[in-house]
């Protein structure tokens, strides 16, 4: 009887240890932009302290990380993968049982558009529409030519230079008096928004989210009155040789959490967390603005987010896991 009892206790202990180590070693891609490194650090902390994973961050970037996950099965998790950039390869990895889409990192998707400052729309709501913009083109003074109006486009060499240029053409903004201005760099484009805001001056141009700039400065995305024609956007608007671009709003870009199938099967509880974990662009814009203002890296931003946004992240996990994560936070 004693031997049977001892064996039962050993088996029970083994079962408990097996459950505790179910997650095991986990590698998480730490991408080289702020939103991605923030999410990666949040995942590492919650997986380590809430689920008992031995979680480690490894350097990553979209194409090399996606390719490595497909071909080598590592890293285990890509927290923020802009999947449209390699969708065929990722979908093939899913079909072959190598990868799994765990959920949307950004519930709104990556967002692009033409924007104006909110203070302009508050004075004249028509400026939230492209028709209103064209009717009031004289407001948007060109910095070098008083007879022209200014539209700040995407920097040369960026993919968005093509789409912004084609939409500028499709909406006949040149005929309305606008000139498409190259801001020179991402910093130049951001700086032009900051300068306009500080002076409360008109501004009209291209930008995207989530970004620190849209977290700091309230901007309104201009409605083209067209809806989204995703098929035309992909076949024409996004191509440099598009001869007859049509007006279409930018379709949202899919931003996913992608995991290896081996991880998904090995750690279903941790997978459930990743499936639930998602940020809106408004949330991320604010977090990115905080990171920039405080020159914070991903780890510091993770602590700030978990401490200040308990009502958000606790909805992603069970009460038991939330308790463990809160305890770990209290010990930092």
Automatic annotation (TrEMBL):
GO terms for molecular function: transmembrane transporter activity. One of its GO terms (cellular component) is ATP-binding cassette (ABC) transporter complex. It holds the Pfam family OpuAC. InterPro entries: ABC_Gly_betaine_transp_sub-bd (IPR007210). It comes from the Bacteria. Keywords: Signal. Residues 1-20 form the signal peptide. The keyword Signal applies. The keyword Cell division does not apply. Residues 25-307 form the ABC-type glycine betaine transport system substrate-binding domain. This is ABC transporter substrate-binding protein. It comes from Photobacterium sanctipauli. The lineage of its organism: Bacteria, Pseudomonadati, Pseudomonadota, Gammaproteobacteria, Vibrionales.
């Amino acid at each position: 009887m004693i031997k049977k009892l001892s064996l039962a206790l050993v088996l029970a202990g083994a079962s408990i240890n097996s459950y505790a180590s179910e997650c095991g070693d986990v590698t998480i891609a730490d991408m080289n932009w702020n939103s991605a490194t923030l999410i990666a650090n949040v995942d590492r902390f919650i997986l380590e302290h809430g689920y008992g994973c031995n979680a480690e961050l490894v350097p990553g970037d979209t194409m090399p990380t996606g390719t490595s996950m497909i071909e080598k099965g590592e890293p285990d998790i890509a927290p923020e993968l802009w999947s449209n950039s390699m969708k065929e390869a990722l979908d093939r990895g899913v079909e072959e049982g190598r990868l799994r889409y765990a959920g949307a990192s950004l519930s709104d998707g990556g967002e692009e558009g033409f924007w104006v400052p909110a203070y302009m729309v508050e004075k004249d709501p028509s400026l939230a529409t492209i028709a209103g913009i064209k009717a009031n083109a004289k407001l948007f003074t060109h910095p070098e030519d008083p007879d022209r109006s200014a539209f700040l486009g995407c920097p040369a060499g960026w993919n968005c230079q093509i789409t912004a240029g084609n939409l500028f053409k499709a909406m006949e903004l040149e005929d309305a008096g606008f000139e498409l201005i190259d801001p020179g760099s991402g910093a130049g484009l951001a700086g032009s928004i900051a300068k306009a805001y500080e002076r409360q001056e008109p501004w009209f141009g291209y930008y995207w989210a989530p970004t620190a700039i849209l977290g700091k400065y309230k901007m309104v995305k201009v409605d083209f009155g067209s809806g989204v024609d995703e098929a035309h956007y992909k076949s024409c608007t996004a191509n440099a040789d598009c001869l007859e671009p049509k007006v279409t709003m930018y379709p949202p870009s899919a931003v996913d959490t992608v995991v290896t199938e081996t991880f998904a099967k090995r750690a279903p509880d941790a997978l459930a967390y990743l499936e639930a974990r998602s940020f809106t662009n408004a949330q991320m814009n604010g977090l990115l603005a905080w990171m920039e203002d405080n020159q914070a890296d991903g780890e510091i931003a993770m602590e700030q987010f978990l401490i200040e946004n308990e009502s958000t992240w606790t909805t992603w996990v069970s009460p038991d896991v939330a308790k463990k994560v809160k305890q770990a936070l209290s010990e930092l």
